[in-house]
Amino acid sequence: MPEKYDFLVIGSGGAGLSFALRVARFGSVAIITKKDSAESNTNYAQGGLASVIAGQDRFEDHINDTIIAGAGLCDPAIVEMVVRDGPSVVRELLAWGARFSTKNGQLDLGREGGHSHNRIVHAADRTGKEIEQTLLAAIARHPDIHVFEHHFALELITEHHLGRKITRSNGDIYCYGAYIFDTRSDKVEAVLAKATLIATGGVGEVYLHSTNPSIATGDGIAMAYRAKARVANMEFMQFHPTTLNIPEANSFLISEAVRGKGGILRDRNGHAFMADYDDRGELAPRDIVARSIDDHLKKSGDDTVYLDVTHIDSNVLSESFPHIMATCRSYGVDITKEWIPVVPAAHYLCGGVLTDREGRTSIHGLFCAGEAACTGLHGANRLASNSLLEAMVFSKRAAEKSVAYIRDRDWVTGVPEWDDSGTFNAEEAILIHHNKQELQQVMWNYVGIVRSDLRLARAFRRTHLLFEETEEFYQRTRVSVALCELRNLIANAYIIIRSAMSRKESRGLHYTTDHPGQKEEARRDTII
User: Fold this and answer.
1) 43 falls in which pLDDT band (50, 70, 90)?
2) Is there a catalytic annotation at residue 286?
3) Domain 429-522: which topology?
4) What is the pLDDT of residues 51-98, one digit of tens each?
5) How high is the pLDDT of residue 426?
6) Which of 111, 126, 230, 286 is an active site residue?
7) Distance between CA atoms of residues 353 and 488, nearest Å
8) Where in the chain is the domain with CATH 1.20.58.100?
9) Phi-psi bin for 370: left (phi > 0), alpha (psi -120 to 50), beta?
10) Most CB contacts within 10 A, which of 111, 174, 191, 403?
11) Residues ≥6 apart with Cβ < 8 Å to 35
């Protein structure tokens, strides 16, 4: 008999954990996470959570900053809703036990690129970890929340698994749970749920260089796409301008807040080049800073630029950025005396599974929140520190609607067991590794910060070949996490490329040399 829960949460980041805490009063909850419960994009978020809290700041200013950064694709109603919900989300996190940085008894509000006021609620430079640990501690105290670590979600259960034909256009698809792979027992079982939340984070691993942890393989987006949910705006991948350019550092992120404190970008000759590209200099939005660095490197032939914070008081640096300071020191860089070598890396996906203002997807009973969702908040470019805010606001709204959704609903019957007949245990792990490497290289070279029609066409052809090879391998072998992650990465790459090919303009994070400038007729979401 399959396991049954009122709520199934796939993912253990801020969105998934806060959703679980909110719905647990109304039914049983299962949280599925493929690694340890603390391994998530939330845990790696350094900057903070943007919210209008104090001083001269106003909701209207935060709304305006978000819309400007979004390059004409933000949904103004969604932006206003999220911004106005911000203070209540901060209060809720404080009530759960979050310990944010304070100064003189008040929250110490930082400032980052694109923001007109100091409004970044943070916990030094490890805000995501503080939020994650706070939520996990609250989860551990709750008797009706069950966390299953080292469990991998394979497929969402829909009418397709009950033998009914479904299409993307009929608008009448239901989600009944998911097939879950227990990696320790090597078994796949169906887990039934009245409501399911996808909170699996982004797709950073589709690129060769990424600030994301290795788990960011877009599993939830790929599952939803295969289940025929609508997916939107996947061409808008944000590249963080400043990651530590030391091979062993794995693109360690140097937070936006470092530039907010006065960090200056310089080339090897000491020239502060950002003034050549934008009047806002280092505080320009991320897409502009990333493109400026990319352009400067190509023109100079250098392989790195530098972030200079040596003019900032060392006590300020140690108080504000202890984790960044310690990490750089571990790689031989004393940021109080030396410039930090930095380059851009894939960071945050602004698209994802399309939802409404309540976190509902186009599939009944399936909700989505966090980086895996496309809510209308970010548009074509995310404003710094709006991601944790979005995750918390939409998980709250999705929780409220999912509680209403499960009333008078029962679990579906007749779901078949996972069928792996005719498959075998593969010993060709090298094929998976090589295909993943090739995919990441293709995406980095052809679908990165600067794109062109030729590059996208090449990426499309090569990705299709990888899809055919991997799909054939998948059909004849038993499932493994590495193989399933590769399938999901290829699916996400396909959607990103297809979305980018359809946008014949340059807007926000999507910049193409063949179609420079924005076109009014193209100011619409890309829905796949």
Assistant:
1) low
2) yes
3) Methane Monooxygenase Hydroxylase; Chain G, domain 1 (1.20.58)
4) 999 888 999 999 999 999 999 999 999 999 999 999 999 999 999 988
5) 65
6) 286
7) 14
8) 429-522
9) left
10) 191
11) 149, 150, 215
